[in-house]
Structure formats: structure tokens, C-alpha cells
Amino acid sequence: MDDRLMTVKQIAAYLSVNERTVLKLVSDGSIPGVKVGNQWRFRKAMIDTWLDDQMLGVTPRYVERTRPPDPSRRMLELDSCFQPDHIQPALAARTKDGAIEELAALSHRLGLVRDKTWFMGALIERENIMPSAIGNGIAFLHTVRRHPEQVTRPFMVLGRSREGVDFDALDGQPTHLLFALGLKYDELHLPWLTKLSQMFARPEAVRELLDAPDAAEIYRSLSEAEKRLSPAPDSPL
Asked: Which is it for the CA torsion 116, 222, 160, 169, positive or negative?
């Protein structure tokens, strides 16, 4: 794993874009970075994984816009793939693998995946390539490749750990909110990752979910955060 930290200038040169584009991408939550004082810093291996995800269609493309918009593609609404029973409000696990196993078990119990062992292994595979924790107590887990035969329908589950789990986050802090995304078909090209990052742009957003007494209140807080987002046209891949 390449843990080298890079500056905005270095990332701009690496991606062959200008520094303003890099600042917009990281401010939008589109690329992984952490602010140290008033300066952004980036882990090269995480940027490489972000590029790989774009090539796989897991995240929307911002650096390169070569294809016209496809009107059949849309950003998923929260309630299209996420419900209150998709939330585990108190994870028992204290380790990364244990937390992933709980999320995989929840997904299987809900009938969202056909094989719990497969989903757990696929999430761990992605974690071994690059940890999914973006800092600020949040991780967005997903598989490296789509497996429509294993995922019954596109979904998201959420596990909460008030104590926190070590997910090798960029800021070195424990992770409290673990979102696991089930990818299926091309419509899940996942502007969801960007959407979720935008929902947690407010500093108090994580605290609201940690303070919520139960799954229903967690779901309500997320729904309110989604409503606060300004509507924007879908981004083409």
C-alpha cells in the first residue's frame, strides 16, 4: 500500500488537471482527501483506487466527460435502496472484519444478497485494496466488481458503532458509521458515493446519527440530510 501523502499541486499534476478542479472535487467529496489545518492532503493509493473505481463504473466520472448523458440513468433516491430495517444501530464488533461480517449477515438476513460469505469476502477484498473509511467517522464499503447473480437488488445497509472501529481511516480516527453498498446493474454507477459525501458535509451530520436513539431516528436524520441537498442534474459516466 502506498501511504505517500500528496498536495493539491501534486495531485493536479498526477491527474493532469488544474488545481481548481482538484479543490472542487475534494470539496464535493468526489475524491478522498483530508484537511490538515487549511491545506488538503491526499494518500496516493486512495487516489489510485478512486481512478480504478471510475474505470469500473463504481463512481461518477468528473475528470473525463466523453459520453453524452443517458436519460435512463439517475441518482438513486434514499428509499429506493435503503429502509429503516437496513440499519444495525449498535454493531457488536470491535474489529474491521467483525463489523463487515455483521453487515454481510444483515444483508443476507434481509434477502439482499444470496450468499453472506461471498458478500463478506467481496467487501474485505475491496478493503485489502484500499480502506473505505474517508475520515470524519464514516466508511463507504462496496465490492470491487458488480455481481448481479449475488445481489438480489441494489441496496445500502448501515452499521453504527458509537465506540468506533479501526478502519484505517485517512485521519487516523475510529469509524462510527459504516455504509455497505450492494452493486448490481449499470444504473448503480453510483453517484450515491458522492451524494452520501455531500450529505455528511455538515460537521454536525455524523453527530446527529450517533446521538439518534434508534434505527427509525437514524433513517429520519438521513432522509432530512438528503432533502437538504440542492437538486442537480445527473452526472454522465
From this structure: positive
